Amino acid sequence: MVLLEAIDLAKQIDDRVLWQGINFNLEANDILALRGPSGSGKTVMLRTLAGLEPIQSGQILYNNKPQSDYEMPVYRSNLIYLQQRPSFASKTVLESIQRPFSFRVHQNKNYDANLVAKYLKSLARDDDFLTKEVTKLSGGEEQIVALLRALILEPEVLLLDEATASLDQETSQKFEQLIKDYITNNKRAAIWISHDQNQSRRISNKEINL
Amino acid sequence: MNYIDISLFKLAIAALLMLINISLSVIFRLGLARNLMVATVRMLSQLLLVGLVLEYIFNLAHPLAVIAIALFMAGMAGASAVRRTSKRYAQIYFDSLFAIITASFFVSAVANRLLVIEPWYDPQYVIPLLGMILGNSLTGVSLALNSFLNSIDEKQKQIEGMLALGASRFEAAHELIKQSLRTAMIPSINAMMVMGIVSLPGMMTGQILAGAAPSDAVRYQILIMFMIISATALASFAVIMLAFRAMFTKDHRLNLANLISKD
After folding, report:
1. Which residues span the domain enclosing B127?
2. In the prediction, which pLDDT does A39 show?
3. A77 vs B166: CB contact, 8 Å cut-off?
4. A-proximal residues of B, 3-42, CB under 8 Å
5. CATH number of A167's domain
6. Could you tell me the pTM of the whole model?
7. Out of A20, A108, A167, B239, which could bridge A172 as a Cys pair, Cβ 3.0 to 4.6 Å?
8. What is the rounded CA–CA span in Å between residue B101 and residue B72?
9. B6-15: per-residue pLDDT in tens?
10. Residues whose CB falls within 8 Å of the CB of residue B118, separated by 6 or more in sequence, listed in order
11. What is the pLDDT of residue B263?
12. Closest chain B residue to A86 measured between Cα atoms?
Protein backbone atom coordinates (compact mmCIF):
# COMPACT_ATOMS: atom_id res chain seq x y z
CA MET A 1 0.00 0.00 0.00
CA VAL A 2 1.56 3.28 -1.13
CA LEU A 3 1.03 6.08 1.38
CA LEU A 4 3.05 8.86 -0.15
CA GLU A 5 4.34 9.26 -3.67
CA ALA A 6 6.66 11.91 -5.07
CA ILE A 7 6.68 12.40 -8.83
CA ASP A 8 9.43 14.37 -10.53
CA LEU A 9 9.78 16.91 -7.73
CA ALA A 10 12.11 19.83 -8.35
CA LYS A 11 13.03 22.95 -6.45
CA GLN A 12 15.02 25.93 -7.49
CA ILE A 13 15.95 28.93 -5.35
CA ASP A 14 16.79 31.95 -7.48
CA ASP A 15 18.96 30.40 -10.21
CA ARG A 16 20.26 27.49 -8.19
CA VAL A 17 18.66 24.09 -8.67
CA LEU A 18 18.32 22.62 -5.18
CA TRP A 19 17.08 19.23 -6.29
CA GLN A 20 15.31 17.82 -9.32
CA GLY A 21 13.91 14.59 -10.69
CA ILE A 22 12.96 13.32 -7.24
CA ASN A 23 10.77 10.23 -7.40
CA PHE A 24 9.93 7.84 -4.62
CA ASN A 25 7.21 5.73 -3.09
CA LEU A 26 6.64 5.46 0.60
CA GLU A 27 4.70 2.40 1.65
CA ALA A 28 3.37 1.28 4.99
CA ASN A 29 6.21 0.11 7.28
CA ASP A 30 8.81 2.01 5.24
CA ILE A 31 11.42 4.24 6.78
CA LEU A 32 13.10 6.29 4.12
CA ALA A 33 16.43 7.95 4.87
CA LEU A 34 16.81 11.35 3.26
CA ARG A 35 20.51 11.99 2.78
CA GLY A 36 22.81 14.59 1.34
CA PRO A 37 25.44 17.10 2.37
CA SER A 38 24.56 20.29 4.30
CA GLY A 39 22.81 22.80 2.09
CA SER A 40 21.49 20.17 -0.30
CA GLY A 41 17.93 21.06 0.63
CA LYS A 42 16.91 18.15 2.85
CA THR A 43 14.91 20.35 5.19
CA VAL A 44 13.28 22.16 2.26
CA MET A 45 12.27 18.76 0.87
CA LEU A 46 10.73 17.68 4.18
CA ARG A 47 8.93 21.02 4.54
CA THR A 48 7.58 20.65 1.02
CA LEU A 49 6.33 17.15 1.80
CA ALA A 50 4.70 18.59 4.93
CA GLY A 51 2.97 21.27 2.87
CA LEU A 52 4.77 24.11 4.65
CA GLU A 53 6.41 25.20 1.41
CA PRO A 54 4.68 25.29 -1.96
CA ILE A 55 5.47 22.63 -4.58
CA GLN A 56 7.43 24.30 -7.35
CA SER A 57 7.22 21.54 -9.91
CA GLY A 58 6.23 17.89 -9.81
CA GLN A 59 3.58 16.23 -7.70
CA ILE A 60 3.08 14.87 -4.22
CA LEU A 61 0.35 12.28 -3.81
CA TYR A 62 -0.90 11.21 -0.43
CA ASN A 63 -3.21 8.19 -0.58
CA ASN A 64 -3.25 8.64 -4.38
CA LYS A 65 -4.61 12.18 -4.11
CA PRO A 66 -2.58 15.30 -4.91
CA GLN A 67 -1.52 17.40 -1.92
CA SER A 68 -3.40 20.39 -3.34
CA ASP A 69 -6.70 18.48 -3.15
CA TYR A 70 -6.49 18.32 0.63
CA GLU A 71 -7.47 20.87 3.21
CA MET A 72 -3.96 21.57 4.48
CA PRO A 73 -4.75 21.13 8.19
CA VAL A 74 -6.20 17.69 7.39
CA TYR A 75 -3.20 16.80 5.24
CA ARG A 76 -0.73 17.96 7.88
CA SER A 77 -2.52 16.09 10.66
CA ASN A 78 -1.70 12.91 8.72
CA LEU A 79 1.87 13.79 7.81
CA ILE A 80 3.42 15.44 10.82
CA TYR A 81 6.68 17.29 10.40
CA LEU A 82 9.04 17.48 13.37
CA GLN A 83 11.13 20.64 13.26
CA GLN A 84 14.89 20.41 13.59
CA ARG A 85 14.64 22.64 16.66
CA PRO A 86 11.16 22.25 18.08
CA SER A 87 9.23 25.17 19.50
CA PHE A 88 6.44 25.29 22.02
CA ALA A 89 3.79 27.89 22.62
CA SER A 90 2.69 26.63 26.03
CA LYS A 91 4.17 26.71 29.52
CA THR A 92 4.63 23.08 30.54
CA VAL A 93 5.37 19.87 28.68
CA LEU A 94 1.87 18.58 29.42
CA GLU A 95 0.21 21.73 28.07
CA SER A 96 2.40 21.60 24.99
CA ILE A 97 1.48 18.05 24.06
CA GLN A 98 -2.20 18.64 24.81
CA ARG A 99 -2.39 21.84 22.79
CA PRO A 100 -2.97 20.24 19.33
CA PHE A 101 -6.11 18.53 20.66
CA SER A 102 -7.73 21.96 20.65
CA PHE A 103 -7.27 22.21 16.87
CA ARG A 104 -10.36 21.51 14.80
CA VAL A 105 -8.72 18.66 12.82
CA HIS A 106 -8.05 16.75 16.02
CA GLN A 107 -11.38 17.34 17.68
CA ASN A 108 -12.37 13.68 17.44
CA LYS A 109 -9.23 12.54 19.21
CA ASN A 110 -8.75 12.39 22.95
CA TYR A 111 -5.62 12.86 24.96
CA ASP A 112 -4.66 9.46 26.28
CA ALA A 113 -2.63 9.74 29.49
CA ASN A 114 -1.86 6.00 29.55
CA LEU A 115 -0.38 6.10 26.08
CA VAL A 116 1.79 9.08 27.03
CA ALA A 117 2.95 7.25 30.15
CA LYS A 118 3.83 4.23 28.04
CA TYR A 119 5.81 6.28 25.55
CA LEU A 120 7.57 8.15 28.34
CA LYS A 121 8.53 4.87 29.96
CA SER A 122 10.05 3.58 26.75
CA LEU A 123 12.20 6.73 26.68
CA ALA A 124 13.22 6.18 30.34
CA ARG A 125 11.36 9.25 31.57
CA ASP A 126 8.74 9.30 34.32
CA ASP A 127 5.53 11.28 34.70
CA ASP A 128 7.36 14.17 36.42
CA PHE A 129 8.68 15.05 33.01
CA LEU A 130 5.21 16.32 32.07
CA THR A 131 5.23 19.06 34.70
CA LYS A 132 8.54 20.54 33.49
CA GLU A 133 8.49 24.01 32.01
CA VAL A 134 9.35 24.00 28.33
CA THR A 135 11.78 26.91 28.67
CA LYS A 136 13.89 24.79 31.05
CA LEU A 137 14.21 21.79 28.73
CA SER A 138 17.51 20.76 27.20
CA GLY A 139 17.76 20.40 23.42
CA GLY A 140 17.36 16.65 23.70
CA GLU A 141 14.35 16.92 25.99
CA GLU A 142 12.75 19.30 23.51
CA GLN A 143 13.08 16.66 20.84
CA ILE A 144 11.45 14.10 23.14
CA VAL A 145 8.49 16.44 23.71
CA ALA A 146 8.17 17.07 19.98
CA LEU A 147 8.10 13.32 19.28
CA LEU A 148 5.55 12.64 22.02
CA ARG A 149 3.37 15.48 20.79
CA ALA A 150 3.40 14.05 17.27
CA LEU A 151 2.98 10.36 18.16
CA ILE A 152 -0.14 10.83 20.27
CA LEU A 153 -1.84 12.45 17.26
CA GLU A 154 -1.24 9.14 15.44
CA PRO A 155 -0.04 10.45 12.08
CA GLU A 156 0.32 8.07 9.14
CA VAL A 157 3.68 9.52 8.15
CA LEU A 158 6.32 11.06 10.39
CA LEU A 159 8.67 13.57 8.79
CA LEU A 160 11.71 13.68 11.03
CA ASP A 161 14.29 16.43 10.62
CA GLU A 162 17.37 15.32 12.55
CA ALA A 163 15.02 14.31 15.30
CA THR A 164 17.73 12.80 17.50
CA ALA A 165 20.52 15.32 16.88
CA SER A 166 20.55 16.61 20.47
CA LEU A 167 20.06 13.26 22.20
CA ASP A 168 22.70 11.12 23.87
CA GLN A 169 23.53 7.75 22.30
CA GLU A 170 21.42 5.74 24.71
CA THR A 171 18.26 7.86 24.51
CA SER A 172 18.72 8.15 20.78
CA GLN A 173 18.48 4.38 20.40
CA LYS A 174 15.39 4.21 22.62
CA PHE A 175 13.89 6.97 20.51
CA GLU A 176 14.59 5.01 17.32
CA GLN A 177 13.05 1.90 18.81
CA LEU A 178 9.93 3.78 19.83
CA ILE A 179 9.47 5.13 16.31
CA LYS A 180 10.14 1.73 14.75
CA ASP A 181 7.56 0.10 17.04
CA TYR A 182 5.03 2.80 16.29
CA ILE A 183 5.49 2.28 12.57
CA THR A 184 5.40 -1.50 12.49
CA ASN A 185 2.56 -1.84 15.01
CA ASN A 186 0.31 0.59 13.18
CA LYS A 187 1.45 0.19 9.54
CA ARG A 188 2.76 3.73 9.39
CA ALA A 189 5.84 5.18 7.67
CA ALA A 190 8.53 7.80 8.15
CA ILE A 191 11.01 9.91 6.26
CA TRP A 192 14.08 10.57 8.28
CA ILE A 193 16.91 13.06 7.84
CA SER A 194 19.93 11.92 9.77
CA HIS A 195 23.57 12.93 9.61
CA ASP A 196 24.52 9.77 11.47
CA GLN A 197 25.33 7.14 8.84
CA ASN A 198 25.07 4.29 11.30
CA GLN A 199 21.67 5.49 12.38
CA SER A 200 20.52 5.77 8.78
CA ARG A 201 21.60 2.19 8.12
CA ARG A 202 20.01 0.95 11.34
CA ILE A 203 16.59 2.41 10.81
CA SER A 204 15.91 2.75 7.12
CA ASN A 205 14.94 0.32 4.40
CA LYS A 206 15.08 2.91 1.61
CA GLU A 207 17.09 5.96 0.89
CA ILE A 208 17.15 9.07 -1.27
CA ASN A 209 20.27 11.08 -1.93
CA LEU A 210 19.96 14.75 -2.71
CA MET B 1 -20.27 83.11 23.61
CA ASN B 2 -18.85 83.78 27.01
CA TYR B 3 -15.16 83.15 26.66
CA ILE B 4 -12.20 85.50 26.68
CA ASP B 5 -10.88 86.41 23.25
CA ILE B 6 -7.19 85.72 22.58
CA SER B 7 -5.55 88.38 20.46
CA LEU B 8 -2.40 87.76 18.41
CA PHE B 9 -0.57 90.03 20.84
CA LYS B 10 -1.49 87.76 23.74
CA LEU B 11 -0.25 84.75 21.76
CA ALA B 12 3.05 86.50 21.18
CA ILE B 13 3.44 87.05 24.93
CA ALA B 14 2.64 83.36 25.54
CA ALA B 15 5.32 82.43 22.99
CA LEU B 16 7.82 84.13 25.32
CA LEU B 17 7.32 81.17 27.65
CA MET B 18 8.82 78.99 24.94
CA LEU B 19 11.65 81.48 24.57
CA ILE B 20 12.55 81.03 28.26
CA ASN B 21 12.92 77.30 27.72
CA ILE B 22 14.90 77.71 24.53
CA SER B 23 17.29 80.15 26.27
CA LEU B 24 17.76 77.72 29.16
CA SER B 25 18.62 74.99 26.68
CA VAL B 26 21.16 77.24 24.94
CA ILE B 27 22.77 78.44 28.20
CA PHE B 28 23.12 74.98 29.71
CA ARG B 29 23.75 73.31 26.35
CA LEU B 30 20.91 70.83 26.79
CA GLY B 31 20.65 70.24 23.07
CA LEU B 32 16.91 70.77 23.01
CA ALA B 33 16.83 74.26 21.50
CA ARG B 34 16.69 73.17 17.87
CA ASN B 35 13.99 70.54 18.40
CA LEU B 36 11.94 72.87 20.54
CA MET B 37 12.16 75.64 17.98
CA VAL B 38 11.24 73.44 15.05
CA ALA B 39 8.35 71.93 16.97
CA THR B 40 7.10 75.35 18.06
CA VAL B 41 7.19 76.72 14.53
CA ARG B 42 5.51 73.62 13.13
CA MET B 43 2.77 73.68 15.76
CA LEU B 44 2.21 77.38 15.14
CA SER B 45 1.99 77.20 11.38
CA GLN B 46 -0.03 73.95 11.27
CA LEU B 47 -2.63 75.19 13.74
CA LEU B 48 -2.95 78.64 12.17
CA LEU B 49 -3.37 76.99 8.79
CA VAL B 50 -5.95 74.53 10.12
CA GLY B 51 -7.79 77.44 11.69
CA LEU B 52 -8.02 79.10 8.28
CA VAL B 53 -9.07 75.92 6.49
CA LEU B 54 -11.71 75.10 9.09
CA GLU B 55 -13.10 78.61 9.00
CA TYR B 56 -13.28 78.43 5.21
CA ILE B 57 -15.13 75.11 5.35
CA PHE B 58 -17.44 76.27 8.12
CA ASN B 59 -18.44 79.23 5.98
CA LEU B 60 -18.80 77.08 2.87
CA ALA B 61 -20.99 74.59 4.79
CA HIS B 62 -21.23 72.34 1.73
CA PRO B 63 -21.58 68.55 2.17
CA LEU B 64 -18.96 67.77 -0.51
CA ALA B 65 -16.41 70.05 1.13
CA VAL B 66 -17.02 68.35 4.48
CA ILE B 67 -16.70 64.88 2.96
CA ALA B 68 -13.52 65.91 1.14
CA ILE B 69 -11.87 67.21 4.31
CA ALA B 70 -13.05 64.13 6.23
CA LEU B 71 -11.48 61.82 3.62
CA PHE B 72 -8.30 63.86 3.65
CA MET B 73 -8.07 63.62 7.43
CA ALA B 74 -8.74 59.87 7.37
CA GLY B 75 -6.17 59.42 4.62
CA MET B 76 -3.52 61.21 6.65
CA ALA B 77 -4.39 59.07 9.67
CA GLY B 78 -4.17 55.86 7.62
CA ALA B 79 -0.79 56.77 6.21
CA SER B 80 0.63 57.98 9.55
CA ALA B 81 -0.38 54.72 11.21
CA VAL B 82 1.86 52.82 8.81
CA ARG B 83 4.73 55.27 9.07
CA ARG B 84 5.46 54.15 12.65
CA THR B 85 5.62 50.40 11.98
CA SER B 86 9.00 48.69 11.71
CA LYS B 87 7.79 45.88 9.43
CA ARG B 88 5.53 46.14 6.42
CA TYR B 89 3.97 44.26 3.57
CA ALA B 90 2.86 45.30 0.08
CA GLN B 91 -0.78 46.31 0.68
CA ILE B 92 -0.24 47.68 4.17
CA TYR B 93 -1.18 51.27 3.28
CA PHE B 94 -4.37 50.15 1.63
CA ASP B 95 -5.29 47.94 4.61
CA SER B 96 -4.60 50.70 7.12
CA LEU B 97 -6.65 53.22 5.14
CA PHE B 98 -9.50 50.77 4.72
CA ALA B 99 -9.59 49.90 8.44
CA ILE B 100 -9.44 53.49 9.61
CA ILE B 101 -11.96 54.86 7.11
CA THR B 102 -14.59 52.18 7.64
CA ALA B 103 -14.31 52.18 11.43
CA SER B 104 -14.23 55.97 11.88
CA PHE B 105 -16.95 56.71 9.33
CA PHE B 106 -19.23 54.03 10.71
CA VAL B 107 -18.88 55.25 14.29
CA SER B 108 -19.22 58.88 13.17
CA ALA B 109 -22.43 58.06 11.33
CA VAL B 110 -23.92 56.42 14.41
CA ALA B 111 -22.99 59.40 16.60
CA ASN B 112 -24.27 61.78 13.96
CA ARG B 113 -27.73 60.24 14.04
CA LEU B 114 -27.67 59.99 17.82
CA LEU B 115 -26.95 63.69 18.21
CA VAL B 116 -29.38 64.49 15.41
CA ILE B 117 -26.95 66.93 13.82
CA GLU B 118 -28.83 69.16 11.36
CA PRO B 119 -27.82 69.35 8.60
CA TRP B 120 -25.95 66.03 8.92
CA TYR B 121 -22.78 67.55 7.50
CA ASP B 122 -22.66 70.51 9.90
CA PRO B 123 -18.86 70.94 10.07
CA GLN B 124 -18.99 72.41 13.57
CA TYR B 125 -19.81 68.92 14.89
CA VAL B 126 -18.68 66.52 12.17
CA ILE B 127 -15.07 67.63 11.86
CA PRO B 128 -14.03 67.88 15.54
CA LEU B 129 -15.74 64.56 16.37
CA LEU B 130 -14.06 62.81 13.44
CA GLY B 131 -10.72 64.36 14.35
CA MET B 132 -10.82 62.94 17.84
CA ILE B 133 -11.84 59.50 16.59
CA LEU B 134 -9.09 59.47 13.99
CA GLY B 135 -6.37 60.48 16.42
CA ASN B 136 -7.10 57.49 18.62
CA SER B 137 -7.76 55.01 15.81
CA LEU B 138 -4.42 55.95 14.33
CA THR B 139 -2.62 55.03 17.54
CA GLY B 140 -4.57 51.79 17.79
CA VAL B 141 -3.93 50.72 14.20
CA SER B 142 -0.29 51.64 14.44
CA LEU B 143 0.23 49.63 17.66
CA ALA B 144 -1.78 46.72 16.28
CA LEU B 145 0.20 46.48 13.05
CA ASN B 146 3.52 46.89 14.78
CA SER B 147 2.77 44.25 17.37
CA PHE B 148 1.25 41.74 14.93
CA LEU B 149 3.97 41.99 12.28
CA ASN B 150 6.81 41.93 14.81
CA SER B 151 5.45 38.87 16.56
CA ILE B 152 4.90 37.08 13.25
CA ASP B 153 8.57 37.65 12.55
CA GLU B 154 9.73 36.61 16.03
CA LYS B 155 7.46 33.62 16.41
CA GLN B 156 7.63 32.16 12.91
CA LYS B 157 8.99 28.85 14.22
CA GLN B 158 6.23 28.51 16.78
CA ILE B 159 3.58 29.34 14.21
CA GLU B 160 4.96 26.86 11.69
CA GLY B 161 5.28 24.29 14.46
CA MET B 162 1.55 24.58 15.05
CA LEU B 163 0.70 24.54 11.35
CA ALA B 164 2.78 21.37 11.01
CA LEU B 165 0.62 19.73 13.69
CA GLY B 166 -2.57 20.49 11.78
CA ALA B 167 -3.52 23.92 13.07
CA SER B 168 -5.47 26.10 10.67
CA ARG B 169 -3.90 29.47 9.92
CA PHE B 170 -6.37 31.10 12.30
CA GLU B 171 -5.61 28.63 15.08
CA ALA B 172 -1.88 29.15 14.57
CA ALA B 173 -2.18 32.95 14.66
CA HIS B 174 -4.90 33.24 17.28
CA GLU B 175 -2.56 34.01 20.17
CA LEU B 176 -0.83 36.75 18.15
CA ILE B 177 -4.13 38.26 17.05
CA LYS B 178 -5.27 38.37 20.67
CA GLN B 179 -2.01 39.89 21.91
CA SER B 180 -1.89 42.52 19.18
CA LEU B 181 -5.44 43.61 19.84
CA ARG B 182 -4.64 43.90 23.55
CA THR B 183 -1.58 46.00 22.78
CA ALA B 184 -3.66 48.27 20.55
CA MET B 185 -6.40 48.75 23.14
CA ILE B 186 -4.34 49.22 26.30
CA PRO B 187 -3.84 53.00 25.90
CA SER B 188 -7.58 53.50 25.39
CA ILE B 189 -8.51 51.27 28.31
CA ASN B 190 -5.98 52.99 30.57
CA ALA B 191 -7.29 56.39 29.51
CA MET B 192 -10.83 55.40 30.51
CA MET B 193 -9.60 54.03 33.84
CA VAL B 194 -8.06 57.31 35.00
CA MET B 195 -10.37 59.71 33.19
CA GLY B 196 -11.56 62.48 35.50
CA ILE B 197 -9.21 61.39 38.27
CA VAL B 198 -5.70 61.79 36.93
CA SER B 199 -6.57 63.65 33.76
CA LEU B 200 -9.28 66.03 32.69
CA PRO B 201 -9.86 65.24 29.05
CA GLY B 202 -8.96 67.98 26.57
CA MET B 203 -12.32 68.20 24.91
CA MET B 204 -14.20 68.55 28.18
CA THR B 205 -11.74 71.16 29.41
CA GLY B 206 -12.18 73.02 26.13
CA GLN B 207 -15.94 73.03 26.41
CA ILE B 208 -15.81 74.28 29.98
CA LEU B 209 -13.40 77.04 28.91
CA ALA B 210 -15.84 77.94 26.14
CA GLY B 211 -18.57 78.40 28.73
CA ALA B 212 -20.41 75.08 28.72
CA ALA B 213 -21.88 73.78 31.98
CA PRO B 214 -19.57 71.05 33.38
CA SER B 215 -22.41 68.50 33.45
CA ASP B 216 -23.05 69.06 29.74
CA ALA B 217 -19.35 68.89 28.97
CA VAL B 218 -19.16 65.58 30.85
CA ARG B 219 -21.96 64.10 28.78
CA TYR B 220 -20.21 65.07 25.57
CA GLN B 221 -17.02 63.56 26.90
CA ILE B 222 -18.73 60.26 27.71
CA LEU B 223 -20.24 60.08 24.25
CA ILE B 224 -16.94 60.83 22.57
CA MET B 225 -15.16 58.23 24.72
CA PHE B 226 -17.57 55.54 23.57
CA MET B 227 -17.03 56.63 19.99
CA ILE B 228 -13.26 56.69 20.36
CA ILE B 229 -13.03 53.29 22.03
CA SER B 230 -15.34 51.53 19.62
CA ALA B 231 -13.71 53.07 16.55
CA THR B 232 -10.25 52.21 17.85
CA ALA B 233 -11.27 48.63 18.59
CA LEU B 234 -12.98 48.18 15.23
CA ALA B 235 -10.11 49.70 13.25
CA SER B 236 -7.46 47.72 15.17
CA PHE B 237 -9.32 44.44 14.78
CA ALA B 238 -9.96 45.09 11.08
CA VAL B 239 -6.34 45.93 10.36
CA ILE B 240 -5.08 42.87 12.26
CA MET B 241 -7.38 40.59 10.27
CA LEU B 242 -6.25 42.21 7.02
CA ALA B 243 -2.59 41.82 7.98
CA PHE B 244 -3.32 38.22 8.99
CA ARG B 245 -4.74 37.59 5.53
CA ALA B 246 -1.62 39.07 3.95
CA MET B 247 0.78 36.99 6.05
CA PHE B 248 -0.91 33.62 5.55
CA THR B 249 -1.92 31.95 2.30
CA LYS B 250 -5.32 30.36 1.78
CA ASP B 251 -3.74 26.93 2.07
CA HIS B 252 -2.56 27.73 5.61
CA ARG B 253 1.08 28.57 4.93
CA LEU B 254 3.01 31.33 6.60
CA ASN B 255 3.90 33.78 3.85
CA LEU B 256 6.99 35.45 5.28
CA ALA B 257 8.21 36.47 1.83
CA ASN B 258 5.54 39.17 2.02
CA LEU B 259 7.08 40.73 5.13
CA ILE B 260 9.46 43.62 4.51
CA SER B 261 11.69 45.08 7.20
CA LYS B 262 11.91 48.82 7.05
CA ASP B 263 15.41 50.19 7.32
Report:
1. 62-261
2. 87
3. yes
4. none
5. 3.40.50.300
6. 0.88
7. A167
8. 10
9. 888 888 899 8
10. none
11. 63
12. B161
